[in-house]
Model the fold of this input.
Amino acid sequence: MKVLKLHTTNFSMPIVGLGTWQANSEETKRAVTSALDAGYRHIDTAFNYNNEDVIGDTLKAWLDKNSAKREELFITTKLPHIANRANDVEKFLKLSLQKLKLDYVDLYLIHVPFGFYYDEETLTPKKNENGEILLDLETDHISLWKAMESVMNKGLAKNIGLSNFNEAQIKKINQNCQMKPQVLQIECHAYLQQESIRELCAKENIAVVAYSPLGSPGARNHFMNKYNYELKNFPDILGHPIVTDIAARHNKSPGQIVLRFLVQNNVAVIPKSANLARIVQNIDLFEFELTVEEVNALKQLDQGSDGRIIDFYFWKGVEKHPCYPF
Ligand code: NAP
Done:
């Protein structure tokens, strides 16, 4: 498996990982086991996905069954929006570690740049009577990042990074830190290619991980079912004729083409699948190469910010937070 070397720590991050958002417990257990059996060593989860527990059990069972070592795996989890304040970082990382049954994670990310208040009992966002999330307007990235550095210094996270931060927010952290972020995880796919922020990351030695690399085909239903929220013009990247034509030419699936497009550009990908055949397909990206013409044709699909799927508007009122990034 090709890896990206993380700056400063020199850690190896497998360039393909398994995404685990939106899968139920049974699916997650099967998907993680199948992925590890198929050669995945990088698993992406988050406090907010409510699956760290089942992932922890599954990892433990797989490691025991295969007499494998913890160090062979690269596990990412994320500090939730409700915990975006310095004195919540260690508490929430420890909660995640407890559920994951791990002593450390390989990568801990600040999930989003904006913060919410939470209900102490349920650990979910507090809302007002209109159903709007109660925003914590005091979110302070500098003190938050210092707390991230502290959990890294304590060995609870081998690497630390950001997710969904914009360029100005990344620069501000870089100018005020001891340890630069090793990774930025952002929505990135053929319709939202993120060239400018990727250039910044290349300059600053930050590895980029693309989330929703297939265009998150399952998110449309998820938004409707969970939040009663509908994104206008939900994209069908895998059905675009340029993608399907290139796929036919290589005798590969459209999914493999859009993933190869990213990894060929040194962007890591974390496709989610709960389907064994697609799990196997999504890591089988290294025995073919897109030509320069094919890469250029795929580059033409970029729609800039119009291609964004995950704008977080499903959290009612989120755009009023001063750190809302888009
Ligand atoms: P995605 O990986 O782009 O798409 C997943 C969807 O595509 C699922 O519905 C899956 O269905 C289907 N699929 C998987 N492989 C396929 C293939 N080869 N051909 C056709 N369809 C395929 O979307 P995502 O889940 O939004 O993003 C991936 C991961 O990124 C997440 O799971 C999560 O770990 C992470 N993420 C992070 C953030 C963040 O804010 N940091 C936000 C979103 C996602 P089946 O399961 O039926 O195969």
Notes: The mean pLDDT is 96. The longest strand covers residues 74-79.
